Amino acid sequence: MAKSANRLVAEEAAGGLWNLSVGEEHKVVAIEVAGGIKILVDLIFRWPAGTGVLERAAGALANLAADDKCSLEVAMAGGIHALVTLARSCKVEGVLEQAARALANLAAHGENNNNNAAVGQEPGALEALVQLTRSPNEGVRQEAAGALWNLSFDDRNRESIATAGGVEALVSLCQECLNASNGLQERAAGALWGLSVSQANSIAIGREGGVVPLIALAQSEVEEVHETAAGALWNLAFYSCNSLRIVENGGVPVLVNLCSSSGSKMARFMAALTLAYMFDGRMDEVALVGTSSQGSSKIVNFERARRLALKHIEAFVLTFSDPQMFSMAASSSGAAALSQVAEVLCIPEAGHLRCSAAEIARLIDTLRNPSSVLRACAAFALLQFTIPGGRHALHHVDLLQKAGASRVLRWAAAAATAPIEAKIFARIVLRNLELHQAGPST
């Protein structure tokens, strides 16, 4: 039926495959085995825009691309080229939404396959998705932003998106989506979070005005939205020029509120890390110069902001403290007590965060900071990033070992004036390093 030259018959067939592609795994496998993926790709090239065939075919491919194995089959059947062709040339909003959704799903499998890189390397793909973030249709903008978020996890794609005008487009999208759906807000903030991993992009996002809408999105009551906004602000705050922009634009009270009130441990964790970056002393010189994003000075009570930030960073860290358990661990030389504490402290989602060598070096340096609050926060972060089983734990352990962190950690664990939390966190990080050296965790 899908191969029929009759438009109505082809539409019904494509619609049937779209319906079958939703839900149970056996239906998805049945489409794959029956050669349905290749048929759907062929339909995209056979029928012109304006027919219902294209939207149905793209929608079915989008559903199938969400499955890891099927996503590879979609790529092998020429699906990436077909979907990018739609994204570049079609003017029908329903088709564009499904094409962008399909590309987002193809790029969502991370290290499981190379589709993410393949989509980015398809000529015109990134440019088309950047352009679709400016669509008048909210659904199209949402799916395009979601695709760019997924694609930004690839280093090469991240820079190519920026080259294609992605920073400016996504900052504009964040500025315009403050009253839009939660899904669009999350994806717009998430795409900026992904792009801001690199220094050039992070600084460009701040320069283009990205700080203000991210602060606004960080005030959302929806956890998914304020969590992604917090992630983007965390990356931006690594650079002093952006930290100053966050302070000047009222970001400290927003981050303090997230740090203390969010129902998401990840949002609270990233808000605390953002505040720690902002007030570890590196912003002071920039703040004294008084440079702002508009080129004029703003009167900000930085010392008051610093005290507020440190107060709530400390409160955040203490929410993970159990005096009785910590006291037992401190008096014990065995690994069992530390393992018990580590299990309680673990934020599972933090295992998905990947830090650069510069970020790990900054956390190590913060272990020597005059502020005991910041030292405890840095040790807590290193604990999260090195817990065995975390997606990037081995990467972080390697960076710590290359930086000679063990000596600093031993000092932090034994410092007479350090709070018990900082000492326990440092000891657990040392334990994590030893566990990784001993071999893979089982």
Automatic annotation (TrEMBL):
Listed Gene3D superfamilies: Leucine-rich Repeat Variant
Protein name: Protein ARABIDILLO 1
PROSITE patterns: ARM_REPEAT
One of the Pfam families matching this protein, by short name: Arm
ARM repeats: 35-79, 78-113, 124-166, 165-210, 209-251
